[in-house]
Design brief:
The protein has a 10-stranded mixed beta sheet with strand order 5-2-1-3-4-9-8-7-6-10, with helices on both faces. Strand 1, helix 1 and strand 2 form a beta-alpha-beta unit. Helix content is 40%, strand content 16%. The chain has 10 helices and 10 strands. It starts with 6 loop residues before the first strand and ends in an 8-residue tail after the last strand. The protein is an alpha/beta fold.
């Protein structure tokens, strides 16, 4: 059975970043297939696909492979514009974008991650700890996690307060006063939703429905909306790695972006060999290929699958990604 809409989502179920995408797909009622991944490296399905990028999730539509949830959400909005969840008014689009940046780049998720309870079983797994240390570039020793918790908790309390006394203070159901959850709600809710479900992360004497009733009511409404959407939507088809790879290499390219901005500050040229990689987390894994497109918001390279040698196109956002030319001898310029 072919993937619905040619969409395949590579993820694992408890990734808070992956939830951003599965929620969106459920709320939109967009059918898709999934290829479940291990929570730690190696990810052999990525290797077969020829993708070095290590973060979860990754989404393919046809032979176009999209990295980073910010770009994935943008592409889903563009590819399926009818009844999109994104704002249409400029001021609401600005709020949506600011919430995205606040949670991802502004420290909300970074502080939320520091509230992972040191007693969770995964922290007893040396393989998991080593993997997350390689991913983040910091220690995941239980002693360090315990040491960071008070400061992280103080920061997260301020962030819960911001929502309680700011965006949600007037009793609205949804961030932009919509009739149902919008993209702005997805951009804002995911770290708070994740923490509320993470047993032992939030001391009830500091952060709970008692201190932040509007925030926790918002989270409950969102959970109910997503649950209702999932109950009426088709369940995603689950593919094994070889099946997913087969569908991808036999599909067509769906993304028409092939413009390289001649005025881009990096001065790169179309068809030039480049490497791209994230610079915040997962920064030890670089993808190399021929430059297909370069705009203010996106970079696209052509690469090849390791199995079958078929061309794919890897798409990444510009924010917090580095793009660097590679010489004919393979050295970075």
């Amino acid at each position: 059975m072919a993937p619905h809409n040619d969409i395949i989502l590579f993820h694992y179920s408890f990734s808070p970043f992956a939830q951003r995408i599965t929620w969106y797909l459920a709320l939109r009622g967009i059918d898709y297939a999934q290829c479940l991944q291990p929570p730690v490296l190696p990810r052999e399905d990525f290797n077969a696909l020829g993708v070095k990028y290590r973060r979860i999730p990754v989404m393919s539509i046809g032979r176009d492979v999209y990295c980073d949830t910010r770009l994935i959400l943008k592409k889903l909005e563009e590819q399926y514009p009818k009844d999109a969840l994104g704002a249409s008014k400029p001021n609401e689009k600005a709020i949506e974008k600011l919430l995205e940046k606040w949670c991802i780049d502004g420290g909300v998720f970074a502080r939320a991650a520091q509230l992972i309870p040191p007693e969770i079983p995964l922290l007893n797994d040396p393989k998991f700890v080593k993997d997350r240390e390689e991913y983040t570039g910091r220690s995941w020793a239980k002693s360090n996690i315990t040491k960071m918790r008070p400061e992280a908790l103080a920061h997260m309390r301020e962030m819960f307060d911001f929502l309680e006394t700011g965006l949600l203070a007037d009793g609205r159901d949804w961030i932009l006063k919509t009739q149902s959850p919008s993209l702005a709600d997805i951009e804002a809710i995911w770290p708070f939703h994740w923490l509320s479900d993470l047993k032992g992360a939030l001391p009830p004497s500091i952060i709970s429905a008692k201190q932040h009733p509007k925030v926790f009511s918002w989270i409950s409404r969102f959970k109910e909306a997503v649950s209702k959407a999932k109950s009426s939507a088709a369940k995603p088809t689950t593919l094994k790695g070889p099946e997913a790879l087969k569908y991808i290499v036999q599909a067509d390219f769906v993304d028409k972006n092939n413009h390289v901005d001649e005025n881009d500050p990096l001065g790169l040229k179309k068809d030039q060999d480049v490497e791209i990689w994230p610079i915040d987390t997962g920064f030890k894994h670089q993808d190399r290929g021929r430059l297909v497109a370069l705009t203010a918001n996106e970079v696209v390279i052509a690469s090849q699958t390791k199995v079958g040698g078929k061309e794919i196109r890897i798409h990444c956002p510009r924010i917090n990604f580095r793009i660097q030319a590679v010489s004919a001898a393979g050295a970075k310029l």
